[in-house]
Amino acid sequence: MIPVSEAFAKLQTLSEERAARVISLIEDLAELEALEDAEDLAAANEALKEYHKTGEAVSLDQLEKQLGL
User: Fold this and answer.
1) CA 45 to chain centroid
2) Residue 40: is its pLDDT beyond 90?
3) Inter-residue long-range contacts of 28-37, CB under 8 Å, 24+ positions, other chains counted
């Protein structure tokens, strides 16, 4: 990964049209990451709800076996 200052310098060398496309792609990536983070958070919350329903604690050994580790 290149430093932000270097990326910004490279962006300044592009035509306005091309720079706008690059910025658009960056914005799209940021939006996708936010959606993935939201999905991960929802899954974690669902897992916590399920845990609180059962009240069962799972040992690390059991968890590793369930995950095939």
Assistant:
1) 16
2) yes
3) none
The amino acid occupying position 65 is K
The mean per-residue pLDDT over the stretch 5-21 comes to 92
**Whole-angstrom Cα distance, residue 58 to residue 45?**
17
Q: What is the pTM of this model?
A: 0.58
Length in residues, the chain: 69
> Are the CB atoms for 11 and 22 separated by under 8 Å?
yes
Boundaries of every domain in the chain = 4-67
d(CA 47, CA 41): 10
Helices (H), 1-69: 4-12, 16-54, 60-67
CB distance 14 to 22 below 8 Å: yes
Rounded to whole angstroms, the Cα distance separating 4 from 11 reads 10
